[in-house]
Automatic annotation (TrEMBL):
InterPro entries: DUF306_Meta_HslJ, HslJ-like_sf, Hsp_HslJ-like. It comes from Streptomyces cyaneogriseus subsp. noncyanogenus. It comes from the Bacteria. Keywords: Lipoprotein, Signal. Residues 1-22 form the signal peptide. Residues 35-139, 148-249 form the DUF306 domain. It holds the Pfam family META. This is Lipoprotein.
Length: 254
């Protein structure tokens, strides 16, 4: 589903959700002060036609140096091609999932998706904050998000698995354990963390069978339990790497 189509589907429901009037202020800054790419930007608010909507907790945007954007509208995840040229950003070929969340105002997702795909966006970045402005004057305001903690965070696996969201892991400091879902089966194991490394014990799992793609994802994740791992947290992304080079990446979903 394209991001524009997602916005169109949500449009009839926008009037039913609450909002607040914008204060008319602006945050224009030199985009050169802060890099737009390589940063996990948390969406704080979106302003359309003078009305400001507070963004859901999960709403975010990240753009890598290779021209790929990914993020969350609040309920639905999205990906897009991203072109950063001087003080402008353009998102294209955007697609989004088609989930419904009872606790997420549909008006916010609609407003955010339309604004992000409204053509070239002027970037105003200064220190910890970024403002994206459409040619018509609508804005998305974002702030830099710091590294998520290893413990207590629900890490949703994006690789392998193609970002389906089915596989996830959570590390528990008090219990020295990791638990979660591998794609098809639930699992739990001991987890010892020391100096950038994690040693996992033998996993205890359920014994269900699922479609081939989910089982393939699960088999790749299970390889992490075969020896010590190195781990790295870059803002909201966790990378686990085994001694033989097997890599699993996950994003924070607290």
């Amino acid at each position: 589903m394209t991001l524009a189509a997602a916005a169109a589907a949500l449009l009839p429901l926008a009037a039913a959700c609450g909002s607040e009037q914008a204060d008319g202020g602006s945050t224009s800054a030199d985009a050169g002060k802060t890099p737009v790419t390589g940063v996990h930007w948390k969406v704080d608010s979106v302003t359309v036609d003078g009305t400001t909507h507070r963004a859901p907790e999960r709403a975010h945007l990240r753009i890598d140096a290779g021209g790929r954007a990914e993020g969350n509208l609040g309920c639905n995840r999205f990906t897009a091609r991203a072109a950063v040229d001087g003080g402008h950003l353009r998102l294209s070929d955007a697609t989004a999932t088609e989930m419904a969340c009872d606790d997420i105002p549909l008006a916010v997702e609609e407003a955010l998706s339309r604004t992000l795909t409204a053509g070239p966006l002027t970037t105003g970045a200064d220190g910890e904050r970024l403002t994206l402005t459409t040619p018509g004057g609508d804005t998305v305001r974002l702030s830099r998000q710091r590294d998520a903690p290893l413990y207590g965070t629900k890490w949703t696996v994006t690789e392998p698995g193609g970002g389906s969201g089915r596989a996830h892991l959570t590390f528990d400091d008090a219990k020295n354990s990791v638990s979660g879902h591998l794609g098809c089966n639930s699992a739990r194991a001991e987890a010892t963390v020391h100096d950038g490394h994690i040693t996992l014990g033998a996993p205890v799992t359920t014994r269900m069978m699922c479609e081939d793609s989910l089982m393939d994802t699960e088999k790749r994740i299970l390889k992490l339990f075969e020896g010590p791992l190195s781990y790295r947290i870059d803002q909201q992304t966790l990378t686990l790497t085994s001694e033989n080079g097997q890599t699993v990446r996950a994003v924070a979903d607290r």
